[in-house]
Amino acid sequence: MAVGLVIFMYVAPLAACLGVMSEAGDWKLGFFATVAQRVGGNWLAWWMLAAAAVRFCSCDLPFIAHLIGHTCGRLQCLQQVAPSFIVSEVHGIAPA
After folding, report:
1. Is there a contact between 90 and 75 (Cβ–Cβ < 8 Å)?
2. Three-state DSSP class for 31?
């Protein structure tokens, strides 16, 4: 039942968008907000943008911070193990 609900939650908005704008050339970044504006006006488009911003802040930013943390850890390991000319190239400083 959960799998069916998840599939429905992905398919339903896409089907609604295809009903409003069926041309493939119209699909671009911010497409759901464009469809929301056509369906419900500016207020619905702003709510879609606000929901996308909240989703980005709650899901993507912690993941990006996690990746940055791993990158910094690897760079510290590289500084301890690698020769100095490699480390200086990683930091963008030309070797002496």
Report:
1. yes
2. helix
Which residue's entry shows tokens 């069916």?
Answer: 4
**How many Cα atoms sit within 13 Å of 93 on the Cβ side?**
7
pLDDT by residue (tens digit) across 7-43?
A: 998 888 888 888 887 776 767 777 888 888 888 899 9
pTM listed for this prediction: 0.51
- Taking phi over 0 as left and psi of -120 to 50 as alpha, with beta for the rest, 23 belongs to beta
CA–CA separation, 58 and 37 (whole Å): 24
Q: In whole angstroms, what is the distance from residue 55 CA to residue 53 CA?
A: 5
